[in-house]
Amino acid sequence: MVFVHDHDASADLYQELLNMEVTVRTATAALLVGHNGFQVYLRAVGPHAPHPAAHVGAQYVI
Q: Full-prediction pTM beyond 0.90?
């Protein structure tokens, strides 16, 4: 899971950069899936939202 400020812009970036497909997109989240089944979950925290880890970026690897 990757916490981001703007999940639409981030989904577009990861889609192009990692050659992944956006399979689910909601108002606050997106799921991208690669050809090999690799998944990236993006979760919007807002431009000024505090986060428990004190920053945006990768938080969980499952």
A: no
